[in-house]
Each structure stands twice: as C-alpha cells, then as structure tokens.
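User: Here's a chain of 188 residues. Predict its fold as tokens.
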Amino acid sequence: MNQNAIDCWDHVNLPFRIGPMSAIDLSQPFTIHLGVDEPQFERFEDDALMRGMMIFRLDLTGLPDRTALADYLAQEFMYPFRTAGLDAAVSLISDLEWFGNTNGHLVIARGLATPSDVGDSFVSILPNVTDRWRTQAIPFIVAIDGKGDRLRSSLQDANDHMEESASLPWAQPGEGPVNVVIHGSGHP
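Assistant: Prediction complete.
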C-alpha cells in the first residue's frame, strides 16, 4: 500500500483512500479512482499497456441523458449485438469476451468533473461491473477525472447495494462493495 496515502472514511461512509497513487496498484486490481488528473491518466495508461491491459478512453462530456450514455457505451465498448439501456451496459461491460483479453481492462473516463445526471448514472453502474470482474479475477480499473460530492454519493449508493446483495444467501464469495480511491487533496 502507498505509504503516502491516508485511509479515511468520507462523509458518505465509503472507505476512500486520499493521497498520491501514480500507477496502477495491482494489489487493488478492482478499484475506481476519482479525481485523476492528466499526468496520472498518462501513467495509468502506460502501466496498463505494459501489463497488456485493454484501455477504453471515454469522454462523457455533453451526453444529454441516460439513453445517450447507454448508446455511447455500446459504441465505445463495441458490443457484439444491439442493446438498449444501462442494464445491458452492466452485463456487457462485465464480460467483454469478444476482445479476447484476459490481462485486464482500464477505463479512462473524462467529462465528469462537472456534476451531471449522466455522470451519476455512469458511476452508479461501476461497482457492479467492477465486482463482476473481481469474481472473474481479471483486473478492471476505472480512472475518472471528477471527484465531486454527487459522484461520491452515487458510488456510495451503488456500493451500499453491492454490500446488501453480498449478504444474500446466493451471493458469490468475495462479492460486495469495491474500493474507491480519491486522488488529490480536498473536495472540489
């Protein structure tokens, strides 16, 4: 673990790590990173390429609604068949077998620094997707430029849901909330 990082509980009760993390930490291969700046994006990408991971570069700027988000994700992740809605996005982004890569996936998401309903919708699917990759033991890391209260609240809600589903009798071992790391200091 990075010795310069501070483990803390944020006001939304999600375990966050605040502090420098300049590269992909493979001891945490199922993590959502918030507040990533351009130099960090570059280091994440360099590390992902070195490890043979696939990189998906998303720019969510200007997407007007959930339907546009679902359509954009279908295009960027090159779904093998036509779909509709964010439920389909969760299922297909949790698979990606059509790419044939077992080294892992890095998702770079820009355009979330300004609060929006689209940003909230996007981050709310990430814990479920990341958890599904964790059950497959294939690294899935997301790096996002935004880190505002709305994004963190949406992640908290989604992680709460993951925690509830992990307590069900049919839950898979290891299922549950995912790690979130906040880069940079303070809150926007």
